[in-house]
Amino acid sequence: MKDNCRLLTYRGHIRNHAELCAQLGVDHSLPREEREKATMLAAYKKWGGDMGSHIYGMFALAIGDGEEIFCIRDQFGTKPFYYYLTDDGELLFGTFIKDIAQSPKFKKEINKDMLQIYLSLTYVAGEDTFFKGVKKLMPGRYLVYKDGKVEITRYWVPTFKPDNSKTLEEWADMIHTTVTKQVMPQVKEASESAQAFLSGGVDSSYVLAVSDAQVTGSCGYDDERFDESPLAKQTADLLGRENVRCLITPQEYFEAVPYVMYNMEQPLADASAIAFAIACRETAKSTKICYSGEGSDEFFGGYNMYRNADRYGDELKNFYVGNTNIMKEDEKKRILKEYDPDVLPINLVRYIYEETEGLDPLTKMSDVDIQIWLEGDIYLNVDKMSEAAGLEIRMPLTDMRVFEIAAAMPSKYKVNAEQNKVAFRTAAAKVLPEEIAFRKKLGFIVPIRIWLADDRYNADVKAKFNSSYAAEFFNINEINAILDDYLGGNSDGWRKVWTIYTFLVWYEEYFVKPI
Asked: Which of 21, 212, 349, 445 is the most exposed place for a label (fewest CB within 10 A)?
């Protein structure tokens, strides 16, 4: 049947297109979009469900093959893919939920169970979504639909096999050689031009240093305690590149929240998502392609909490569900009107701990974040906000060839008592001064914990905490107690307030306002 197949939907960017075109007999001179679609079809005809193993890049697609529909998503989930079975057994699908929602056969209902997950993790983790019946095709999987039934196959599983034969310098050389000789030449074609997002951190600085981007964009704030843009400008000046500062004001930030939640299609309480959305809109005014540095923190041990891995030991499987876990079960039980004790975040990652049985604690933590956090938060944000702005983000460090180095690297070269991301920073130091390559991780800092307490900006937060639709899900007195505690001086409570608020903004966009 493969001779009659046709591409039904596709979004992505393929890096090894020259090699694939030669293997598959595709005309490499075709315009990029046409060439990639032809390559995807040819790859399916030749390799079927194994096609993903031959492709470097980002992709999510569906192919009609006679009576079957074949859908596949890349190994890391950089591009989203959703599907929904109607009451009469039809498969609705797309890389946006709106692709599904426009069908008259779609029944728009809230999945209340997801709220319990969201209140802990601050993002939509796992295969379910906030729309009942709408599921994500998870990373590294393909789906075959036939005769009203869906069958999902996992074509890729992250596999870690530490190789103790190499030195730190050898691992750093491997990273640098792979990024500069294999990945970067494929990330952009000669006819394309790109800019680069630049923070004060090593990831974006390294990507800039090994790229030909001449213009960089950085987020800045009037409050110098949170403003990384001077560090970014320092790096840009050192590398001889232009730096454009996007000053984000509290008013602009809060005004963007409904825009972000609507275009995200799911609530996301990552405070940096709002700043990222504003940066995407600003950057899209001057370029259509922009580099960003996602992936290396999870691959190479970049988060400060990873330095506690050995202390956690075997206990990890009982509590570690990823990068964020802000609300415990007793608190959710208290604030929610409906609470199911069987809906637990830890259930989403049990299979990952089974896969990493016998490996060291840092590897287990990294694998949870690679499989759950990256897909549910980081890549969702990058994809949705760039798409909404008309910008294409290329992430050189998110690449199977880079991951394969990380998967073979012993944890002692990722994290030690003094530093995280040791081997990666050593690689970056080949093109950056040590003070940049080994600068302490700052994260994507946003002054939200300050702004949220300011009465000039939080009126909508207070209104939504007392809205009729908040009362559908929450015990109003309990969530207002959380808000009052935060406003009364407990600044650490901002994450809980923000998580509840972003859900309510999203709910208003999709279930209260007419669409």
From this structure: 212
